[in-house]
Amino acid sequence: MGSNSRYDRDRPVGDREAAEARAFHTIAELLAHHPELITDPTVAGQIAHVLHNSAIELAAGRPLPIGVRRAVRGLAAALRAAMDPRPKAGA
Q1: What is the C-alpha separation between 59 and 52, in angstroms, rounded?
Q2: With 70 as the cut, is the pLDDT of residue 4 above it?
Q3: To 5 degrees, how large is the angle CA 52–CA 10–CA 18?
Q4: Per-residue confidence at 67, pLDDT binned at 50, 70, 90?
Q5: Which residues contact residue 50 at a Cβ distance below 8 angstroms, ignoring those fewer than 6 apart?
Q6: Residues 86, 35: contact at Cβ < 8 Å?
Q7: To the nearest whole number, what is the mean pLDDT of the chain?
Q8: 20 to 30 Å CA-CA from 84: which of 28, 29, 67, 73?
Q9: In 3D, which of 71, 83, 67, 70 has the Cα closest to residue 26?
Q10: Helix (H) and strand (E) counts in the chain
């Protein structure tokens, strides 16, 4: 009897998912170097936890539900922009 659990249905990881997983890990790790961005270390830790675990799921070939994936992508994009050392346009 086969299982229908999403954890039993791993699929091959494409280049796009692998790159996205690496980016999520990198952004999560960079949070530790930007304490001015999120001043509460508990909140920063939980955000990093969400990014790391999303990356783990993607890297293992397990898709995130589309709403969750969009939310994590948006979070990652906002953090990446906030941590970008280049001057902001119009600043």
Answers
A1: 10
A2: no
A3: 45
A4: very high
A5: 72, 75
A6: no
A7: 87
A8: 67
A9: 83
A10: 3, 0
Using alpha carbons, select from 29, 19, 66 the residue that is nearest to residue 51: 29
- Give which of 44, 43, 42 is closest to 83, Cα–Cα: 44
Residues 6+ apart with CB under 8 A from 33: none
| 75: nearest Cα among 41, 31, 33, 17 | 31
Summarize the chain as % helix, strand, coil (round to 5).
65, 0, 35
Cα angle, residue 91 at apex, residues 27 and 89 outer, rounded to 5°: 65
pLDDT surpassing 90 at residue 60: yes
pTM of the predicted model over 0.90: no
